[in-house]
Amino acid sequence: METATNTRDINKKREGYLEWPEYFMATAFLAAKRSKDPCSQVGACIVNEHNVIVGTGYNGMPKGCHDEEFPWSKESKNELENKYLYVCHAELNAILNKNSANVRNCSLYVGLFPCNECAKVIIQSGIKEVIYMSDKHSKKISTIASKRMLDAARVTYWQLIPKNRRIVIDFDEINWNEQNQLPASPAPVQVSKMMENLTIAGTTAKPLQFDEIVDN
Ligand SMILES: [Zn+2]
Predict the structure, then answer these.
(1) Which residues are catalytic?
(2) Which residues are in the CMP/dCMP-type deaminase domain (predicted)?
């Protein structure tokens, strides 16, 4: 079996690199892996007009509201013991986590189509585009309301259908011994050779030069 190593052409751009939309959606999916929600793990990734990530988030309890003390259930008869009243959705967290002054004109990548509450925050923050993977709640009134608001506010949305169905992060994938990002080091210079070019201070010392400088 041929490996990626022995088929690569080091003089050409590498093939098989991640394209931007898949990279950003994969970043959202990676963030989702932080979620403690047993039923639904959603991640979001906000990207500015220069393809720079300016925020990520996943669904979780607010800061200080500890996962051990707040419920992850969704079926309790007591609504106070269900998660819905407490959880911050991925989109909200990504916007609040932004590391830029604002997220105006940014795009938001998210695993699941935003609910109506997140749509409000998306619109008010100036995000102009939503890219999602699943629209499985399209029949729910919260999604219908969400689309009504996004449409009115001219926030565009489209579904990403990735070319790669699986993106695996394998910490052992990269063979660091074969990585060669830096130019080759100059050949080692022997100290004894260097010393030949030096004379004792106070005499006509020739400056140490690794290469002769021609100064015309
Ligand atoms: Zn939401």
Answers:
(1) 91
(2) 19-157
